[in-house]
Amino acid sequence: MTGAEAAQVVLRLDRITKSFGKLVANDAVSLSLHRGEVIALLGENGAGKTTLMNILFGQYTADSGRVEVFGHDLPPGNPRAALDAGVGMVHQHFTLADNMTVLENVALGTVPLWRPRLDRAAVRAKIAGLAEDFRLAVDPDARVGTLTVGERQRVEILKALYREAKILILDEPTAVLTPQETDDLFATLRKAVALGLSIVFISHKLHEVMDISDRVVILRHGRLVGEMRTQDTDRHALAAAMVGAEVSAPKVAPATPGAALLRLGEVSTPDKGNAPGLKSVSLDLRAGQITGLAGVSGNGQAALADLIGGLCAPKTGQLDLDGQALARWSPRIAVQSGIARIPEDRHKTGTIADFNLTENAILESYHTPPMSKHGWMNWTRAEIATRDIITRYDVRCPGPETRIRLLSGGNMQKLILGRVLEAAPRIILANQPVRGLDIGAVNYVHSQLLEARARGAAVLLISEDLDEIMALSDVIHVISEGRLSPEFGRGTMAPADLGVWMAGHGFEEGLAHAS
Amino acid sequence: MRLEPIANPSLARTILPPAIAIAMTVVVASLLAMLAGANPFSVLGLILKGAFGSKFAALETLNRATPLIFTGLSVAVAFRARLWNIGAEAQLYAGALITVVLGTGALPWGAGALLPVLALGAMLAGALVLLVPALLKVRFGVDEVVTTLLFNFIFLLFISMLLEGPLKDPMGMGWPKSERLIAEARLPRMMEGLRLHWGFGLAIIAAAVVWVIQRRTTLGYEMRAVGLNRDAARFAGIAVNGVLIKTALLSGGLAALAGFSEVAGLKGNLTLDLSPGFGYTGIIVAMLALLNPLAVVAAALFVAGIFVGADSMSRAIGVPTYLADIMLATALLLMVLAILLTRFRVVRE
User: Which of A97, A263, A497, B140 is the most buried (most CB within 10 A)?
Assistant: First the structure.
């Protein structure tokens, strides 16, 4: 019919099915990609997008189904064959060697191991050509370890193009980018499409999908539930198709902020490897208010969360709780001071996978009555408390004896919520509280945070999702390289304005003003 | 081929692989017995008979199991918190050392006062021996596998020096051995006329106490949390380093009780061959028991039975006792594999 559909089919997935145990990650998914086309693969976390692409790229083997590239079957479970067939993948987590230069990273794996010398001039010329053609500005002699996240992503794309990829798969490429960097990426992708490449773009951000794609394919619970041309749809329809129901943004009443419960006064903390520490950060967390912390991942959010969570102490500056300077600071003191901590990584720091629900539910309270007395555990009381959390926070599980590793991310998060909110905390540190959760769990977590705010709790919401920050926060700060922006009131900043701060601009001005 | 974790292993999944591991161990032992020119059935039969076939044999096995229960518990406690104590051997000798230093007449008390003091003194010595590597680990990140392992050799040479010098028995005809304990410092037999001393009873009590600590106390909860996920434990407010130090003290103390029990219950003096590697065998015992303190008792009986039975079998038909070592090594390796198979399924690509 139209030009796009008449174009050559470069990639065809035919009834791909893959299960992990009882979970069906992909259920007979078929799709085709044409030359010069951008398909957006849309779906919630856990919908099966990444699994499907890993099958295409040969990292998983499908239980059944076929992958066809340029009319030829791709042997299953063989990434090398996928590469040779012209499929290039840019993973969510980069696969670059930090201690090597851009040029070496790009050439890595393309030269046989027994070749004693790398023909740098030839590689350099080819990289220069690609950088020119695709608008990928990267210094080939820079060490990857010194590059920003956006630059690293360009290296990944360069790597795929260097191997003559004709089909690019980008797995959540914008998750780590500022809005400006995202624009640059999209410019590159448009160039690539103009030069005849085809792109599969995995995302759950609707406006990006609308922006870049020609066609949208929607996965839900491993099944393909919708396929439409981007020009024929809108964000609202996509969101509905993605979650299977109409979604509504949370309604947030204006806040009535009270006194500052926790106050950071020009706090600095040491850097931790690549992760920057805080650079003279001053921040007030006020009662009855949600403070949003926006920023690109790895810009000091971890340092701030560690500080408030009690895992590290200020190197300089001071921490005031209810106007009292804190002399000693530890996770336990933080908990006892009424700080509820929802950790960023619920698998690694929030729970102990091989502990059961009861043991996980009492992690912060086991040393106090009624969970224990004089060093003796009272498991009966612990189990009663856990059952209470399970009911009140709707944790779907076989019972308190279940090992928590068997629970889904959402139910795990609900248990953590129960654990930290049960004590009616005055301050809540919510670090990426909805990352990886499905929409139902997301709404639940958000409603809990709003409820706590209504009770008069001070909430610090750290998130990389600007939409989430803007929807929930009464005031917003942006963090960049450990520096904190001034406070912005609700609705005073557009995403693009925040993006400027996220990219690290605006601080110089502020600093000049301060000195 | 690749391993996929099993969410909810069935009962058969949990029991079958370890059972097959034991069966395979028997098969390997049979093959070796045939290689040595003996009938495998009579070899296995003789091992079984030598270990449990008579009252004498069974008591011998229980005596042999006693130090292994202590060292097995020591390792199980430490490994549960992911403190890799390979130094139970040194801690055992530390316990033995205190027992002979205090028990050869320095404290002229009755048994009722002396024995508890000796046991506690031994535990304290063993605890201190493991405290040093544990402090190095939490302060400077020094790998405790290296320090505890190497300290075994240092401590054995130290004992050797003492036995050639200040502790040497003047009536010992020049042999490097200590004076004998006074009668009040000897552990009595558990029953009149039986060659089984109270060290075994103490070992059983220790296993029960460790089980209670792990299951019923906040310290046990902290130890398990630290062992399973140190980051989450620290985040929740558990003082990880403090727990590791407490674990080290308990683990070292348990291993030292093996030395106390061997000297006060069996040998009566300290020599350099007090332990034929009880500290290292304790690792096998703890692993076979999946670090469960009650299962340590059963595992220690199994291991002791193989040693005692193989000795007896060797005397009867001349197949070397090294068969016992091979059987234990095979059992350990297969058991590690079996444990893996209870939790993972092998998928062919």
Answer: A263
Q: Which of A378-387, A499-508, B61-70, B270-279 has the lowest mean pLDDT?
A: A499-508
CB contact under 8 A, A366 and B216: no
Q: How many A×B Cβ pairs under 8 Å?
A: 72
Asked if B224 has any chain A CB less than 8 Å from its own CB, the reply is yes
Nearest to A331 among B216, B217, B234 (CB): B234
Q: Cβ contacts (< 8 Å) between B232 and chain A: which residues?
A: 348-352, 363
Chain A interface includes B349 (CB < 8 A) = yes
Residue A121: predicted pLDDT = 86
Q: CB–CB of A295/A178 below 8 Å?
A: no
Q: For residue A46, count other CB atoms closer than 10 A to its CB.
A: 20
pLDDT digits 0-9 by tens, A323-357: 888 889 999 999 999 999 999 888 889 999 999 99
- Expressed in angstroms, the distance from the first to the final Cα of chain B is 5
Please write the tens of the pLDDT for every residue from A111-165.
Answer: 776 767 778 888 889 888 988 888 888 888 989 888 887 888 889 999 999 988 9
Residue-level pLDDT at A400: 93
Handedness of CA B258, B260, B266, B270 (dihedral sign): positive
pLDDT tens per residue across span B115-127:
999 999 999 999 9
Cβ atoms < 10 Å from Cβ of A116: 5
Query: Which comes out higher in pLDDT, residue A48 or A414?
Result: A414
Pairwise CA distance, residues B97 & B103, whole Å = 10
B-chain CB neighbours of A372 within 8 Å are: 218
Question: CB within 8 A of B45, min separation 6: which ones?
Answer: none
Q: What is the pTM of this model?
A: 0.77
The verdict on a CB contact (< 8 Å) between A21 and B4 is yes
B192 in contact with A, Cβ within 8 Å = no
DSSP β-ladder status, A488-489 and B2-5: unpaired
Render the burial of A162-188: b for 16+ CB within 10 Å, e for the rest: beebbbbbbbbbbbbbbbebbebbbeb
CB atoms within 10 A of CB A491: 8
pLDDT tens figures, B167-182: 888 887 888 899 999 9
Least confident range from A10-19, A292-301, B159-168: namely A292-301
Contact A174, A465 (CB under 8 A): no
**A362, closest residue in chain B (CA to CA):** B236
Report d(CA A148, CA B242) in Å as an integer: 39
Q: How far is A17 from A97, CA to CA, in rounded Å?
A: 33
CB contact under 8 A, A377 and B218: yes
CA angle A288, A291, A293 (to 5 degrees): 165
More confidently predicted of B29 and A499: B29
Interface test with B, best of A377, A380, A415 (most B CBs within 10 A): A377
ipTM: 0.87
Decide which of B232 and B21 is more confident.
B232
The 3-state DSSP class for residue B222 equals helix
State mean pLDDT over B277-288. Answer: 93
- B231·A349 Cβ contact <8 A: yes
Give, for B209, the enclosing helix (H) or strand (E): helix B198-216
